[in-house]
Design a protein that fits this description.
Elements (H helix, E strand, L loop, with lengths): L2 H13 L7 H13 L12 H20 L1 H5 L8 H26 L5 H9 L17 H18 L8 H29 L3 H20 L11 H6 L7 H19 L9 E3 L4 E3 L5 H11 L3 H14 L1 H15 L6 H8 L1
Antiparallel strand pairs: 1-2
Helix pairs in contact: 1-2, 3-5, 5-8, 7-8, 7-9, 7-11, 14-15
The chain binds benzoyl coenzyme A (BYC).
């Protein structure tokens, strides 16, 4: 391990919480570790604002994973074949797993899952704008896989190099699974695109509806992104929102051609000089409205999430009772130990 991290660890272990006089030294060690591309680990000293930013981003990401289960789960009972149903169930289960890794990563920063879920349920923390759109046809499952998971991978592969160790490590596994998700969506859309004229039209309609919201997933334009500059200095984010959005557009254009589908943007064209595709303006009013809670499905998604949480109370109680029995400790809240007695 390089010097900066060694110093930092030694300092925090020897002294416990740093006294105010020592903070500058810790700050220098932290800055040096980030500059040297070392990982910050849970027991290392870190600035309060770095911790708060990570909790905000990881929580939003975790919430997106579990809310993101809803639009696709909507189609499990109506999948057109056993094979498609098995694939879709596996994908939705993977998303629950991603939520779990991410809530665990947030816990390493001292913020428990209960607190984060409370914030989600009371609207104090966000989840991705993309999941406030409805899944109207079976082709939407394909469009989500291709575009939404594709955008997620583009955004998340650089997070595997995030400066905070537990988040970066969680992202490695998540990205591998997202890659399978993206491929299943692409393959599903290809089958529809090459199918009957009705199936082709259904695939095209889904792509038309999901394209622009997928571009919004990368967040506001750089000049309106309040957190990007600081997050990039800390190497939490490695690229700006606009850089990643451009990368995604450049990846999608040839893929759409192979699919035999078009992207719903008359201004989309290759710009030789820039070496990138130009694309039309994004409706940022729509994005901010969705963030304010006014998207087509915001209310439905959060109500369903609260209901699922309430209906899962008995599982949490049973798990706490089981843990208490096997560790010999009361474990959890009084409510939970009540369940043990019952
Ligand atoms: N939706 O300063 P900015 C997935 C908020 S994929 C809602 O640029 P930052 C999945 C932002 O939080 C989706 N809110 O922020 C895929 C901030 O508000 P607060 C999840 C958004 O953090 C398939 C404000 O706007 N992926 O999970 O530097 C199936 C200003 O933005 C959005 C991740 O979360 C949005 N699209 O950059 C199932 C990846 N964009 O917090 C599941 C990790 C921005 O101050 N996250 N906001 O109230 C990130 O990479 C970054 O957090 C973002 C935003 C690029 C999203």
């Amino acid at each position: 391990m390089a010097t900066a991290a060694a110093q930092r660890t030694a300092g925090s272990e020897a002294d416990g919480a740093p006294d105010p006089v020592d903070t500058t030294a810790y700050q220098h060690a932290f800055d040096a570790a980030v500059a040297a591309d070392e990982r910050i680990e849970p027991r290392d000293w870190m600035p309060d604002a770095y911790r708060a930013t990570l909790v905000r981003q990881i929580a939003q990401h975790a919430h997106s994973e579990i809310i993101g289960m809803q639009p696709e789960a909507n189609w499990i009972t109506r999948a057109p074949s056993l094979r498609r149903k098995a694939i879709l169930m596996a994908k939705v289960q993977d998303e629950a797993g991603h939520g779990l890794y991410l809530y665990s990563a947030a816990e390493t920063l001292g913020t428990g899952r209960d607190e984060l879920l409370d914030k989600l349920h009371s609207g104090r923390q966000k989840y991705s704008s993309i999941f406030n759109y409805p899944t109207l046809t079976w082709a939407d499952v394909g469009a989500i896989g291709w575009l939404v998971d594709g955008a997620a991978i583009t955004n998340q592969v650089p997070l595997c190099r995030c400066s905070y160790g537990p988040y970066a490590r969680a992202m490695v596994r998540i990205c591998k699974e997202e890659s399978f998700h993206q491929r299943q969506g692409y393959e599903l859309l290809l089958a529809l695109s090459k199918g009957t004229p009705e199936q082709h039209a259904m695939a095209q309609d889904a792509v038309n509806r999901w394209w622009w919201p997928s571009l919004m997933m990368f967040g506001p334009p750089d000049d309106e992104s309040q957190h990007s500059a600081q997050s990039m200095t800390w190497k939490i984010k490695r690229h700006s929102n606009d850089e990643l959005r451009q990368r995604f557009v450049d990846i999608c254009v040839p893929q759409a051609e192979s699919l035999g589908l078009t992207l719903p943007d008359p201004e989309l064209r290759w710009n030789e000089e820039r070496g990138h595709h130009d694309f039309g303006p994004i409706d940022w009013t729509e994005f901010w409205e969705v963030l304010k809670g006014n998207g087509p499905c915001n209310e439905q998604r959060i109500n369903q999430r609260r209901r699922a949480h309430d209906e899962g109370a008995w599982v949490r109680e049973a798990a706490a009772a089981y843990a208490a029995k096997h560790t010999g400790s009361a474990g959890g809240t009084g409510h939970e130990t009540g369940a043990t007695r019952a």
